[in-house]
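Q: Predict the bound structure with amidocarboxymethyldethia coenzyme *A.
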Amino acid sequence: MKSFARNLYQQQNGQRYFSVALKKKVEHSIQEKQKVLNHFKKEHGNAKLGDVTVGQVIGGMRSMPGLLYETSKLHHLDGITYRGKDLYQVKEQSPKAPGGSEPLPEAALWLLLTGEFPSQSELQEFQTELFNRGQIPAEIEKLIKSFPKTMHPMTQLSMGVLACQPLSKFAKAYHDGIHKSKYWDPTFEDALDVCARVSRIAAIIFHNCYGDNNKIPTADPALDYGANFAKQLGFNDKTFWELMRLYIVIHADHEGGNVSAHATHLVGSTLADPYLSFSAGMNGLAGPLHGLANQECLKFLLDLQDKLGKTWTEDDIRQYVKDTLASGKVVPGYGHAVLRKTDPRFMCELNFADQFISKDDNLVNLVKACYRVIPNVLEATGKVSNPWPNVDAGSGALLMHYGLNQFDYYTVLFGVSRAFGVMAAQVWSRGLGLPIERPNSFTLEHLIKKVEHDHHIHHGHGHHGHK
Ligand code: AMX
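A: Predicted complex:
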């Protein structure tokens, strides 16, 4: 039942809607969590979570415990969970578009914020709300359209998000002197606005780079987020809409330590508003070892096809991968900093391909053949911690299948999706009052001296000497 009358929405300043229902849920669960956190911190603030090694300090803080991050958790074997639900459960339990099979991004956002999926009526209202929040003032659209076409789409995304920063409600509320216990409220408002707007920004960038930015399709209030995004890119194939829904959901969140989530959190920890912090996260996502890997990965597959034609064999692939390694390059789409088995997001992509894509798509078949061949080759190097494919090994081939072949745009799709995770997480970081980040750093000389000193004591030359 449509329910403006039930007062689930209120109008603010005569022009913007906000969801009282969702906000109340978030507020309630933040308050409950805050109590748990305060008690836990008081009782167990000095409990140890492990030791920090010199190797970790030098090695990019790999696996070092260091962040509180509520929305999702990565397990090295089980993969990612959103609020405790793995991706297969998310797919199964999520509300779908009418007649659809894939999870809806807006439902995933609700889940990340609250820990539950929305009811059908909550979902409908949330969809209307996100649609309304997605509008971008004409002068900002004009600014984004003026970016040079040759500028990398990720640079345009980061700048496009920054162009919207003057709309930040958090920045305004902070300037107006809001009490710190209320920070989460305008953060929540900005977080929803960023998620709603980012797909429009991304659509403008797409047309700016590859089409005619005077002819950008408009969003349709009757459609869901994923369908609307695809439509604004100019894609009207309903199966592609399903792919966009799945794509946005599976790329959304990946616990807190990955570069885009951590950069967003780090910058946000200064009380920089969600636009500033999300834009920082996007700059990290633009790196080739992180989000840019999906464009690199498709390039790898296409180069392979170019060189070997469409009649490649598994032996050809094996040799090609060995040559890649010998030339000092990584094999994109393989390996992971945390996972130690095939990325479940890759499995979701394969399942999608099996369900929707014909068996004679050469590129999709190449993805599958690589999955059979590459792990063994990487394993044989003896140094790769995880030889299995990550999410990027499959996504490009699926996008190509539907004709989205502008592969320097792929990371922008990832960025649209990542907004849902890192913005939901920022609401929670504010809600729990997490402080500014400030880890300790060392010069190499300090580290060497410290280790020598400890070694000295440990071997009985100091006053603590035993053994
Ligand atoms: N191809 C070749 N070598 C690889 C490799 C790959 N796919 N993955 C790891 N290695 C190498 C590393 O370069 C490193 O070599 P070095 O000791 O000579 O520097 C060694 O194996 C050990 O690295 P690791 O512990 O296995 O990986 P990591 O945690 O340091 O890095 C990652 C993880 C993802 C950056 C790395 O596996 C990689 O570069 N993969 C290819 C790029 C890629 O697919 N990135 C996407 C990640 C997901 C995402 O963010 N989208």
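A: Residues 289-291, 293, 325, 330-337, 378, 383-386, 390-392 surround amidocarboxymethyldethia coenzyme *A (CB under 6 Å).
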